[in-house]
Design a protein that fits this description.
The protein is an alpha+beta fold and 277 residues long. Helices cover 24% and strands 31% of the residues. It starts with 6 loop residues before the first helix and ends with a helix.
């Protein structure tokens, strides 16, 4: 739900440009002020809600009441959503990139072809769309031809269409965050020790202890502006669809393309166990 200065204007402008309406501008009030929300459809049944809260001083939304649970664990260091990735069908990536460009005024900032993101079995193509200030980033994936069914195709089959593949959440200390999440039962994709054999030759000098990163299976990648650390959970639903990424940026503005092969091979190991590869 992106914040906007004017939810009515955002709705009127995007629907005028061809977006399918999801929620007409709706005003909600309580003693703390008012919030205006509206929404549009994007790929599949995914929706974007525009939230105007400039006239609201409450904790969350009108009608919200804080509830204190008896279980209140300490935070694990997760801060905000870094990006959200969508999977769309065959030959639909450019269509939805055009949608974000023409309807929402986003710009394409990165593009990956099928030979950039491929393993022996699967491939995909991806483009990253971002809003004007770079705060909102939506990579969009589509399948590409491979020897077997790709994880994008598997997602589309199990989700019954296009949808959000994963949500990346930022942290300032990925080792501490991942360690705390593991202690609470979160399962992450397995990264083989061989991934680290020549990693420093590829990414160069980093601040972290490589053995500690290896212990937690954390992936590393570098671009022209710095490097990043990332790790992906196993699927968090009962189907092989949604998962969560934990990411720490040390200057890098990219999305870990150098790790895609390792990520996809890890997903393929799970696909093989499910019998869908």
């Amino acid at each position: 739900m992106p914040y906007v200065d004017d939810a009515r204007s955002a709705f009127e402008e995007t629907t005028k440009r061809g977006a399918k309406p999801y929620m007409e501008p709706t005003v909600e009030k309580d003693e703390f002020g008012e919030v205006v929300r509206s929404g549009i459809y994007t790929y599949g049944e995914t929706v974007h809600i525009f939230v105007e809260r400039k006239n609201y001083d409450g904790l969350f939304l009108p009608g919200y009441e804080k509830w204190e649970s008896h279980y209140n664990p300490e935070p694990v260091g997760l801060k905000f959503i870094d990006h959200m990735v969508g999977n769309v069908g065959w030959d639909e990536m450019n269509k939805w990139c055009k949608f974000y460009g023409e309807v929402m005024g986003f710009a394409q900032i990165i593009s990956f072809a099928d030979d950039d993101i491929a393993t022996d079995y699967t491939a995909l193509m991806s483009k990253v769309m971002s809003n004007g200030n770079g705060r909102v980033k939506f990579p969009i994936n589509e399948p590409a031809e491979g020897k077997k069914k790709s994880q994008i195709e598997e997602y589309l089959d199990f989700y019954n269409g296009p949808g959000v593949q994963h949500i990346a959440v930022a942290t300032d200390d990925i080792v501490a965050t991942v360690s705390a999440m593991r202690d609470r039962g979160v399962e992450f994709l397995y990264v083989p020790d061989t991934y680290y054999d020549d990693i420093l030759e590829r990414v160069g000098e980093i601040d972290e202890d490589i053995e500690l990163l290896k212990k937690h299976g954390i992936l590393i990648d570098r671009d022209d502006e710095g490097y990043l650390l990332q790790l992906f959970t196993n699927n968090v639903l009962d189907r092989p669809t949604m998962f969560i990424e934990v990411i720490q940026r040390k200057g890098a503005q990219s999305f870990g393309v150098g790790n895609f092969k390792a990520l996809f091979e890890a997903i393929e190991r799970q696909q093989a166990r499910r019998g869908t590869l």
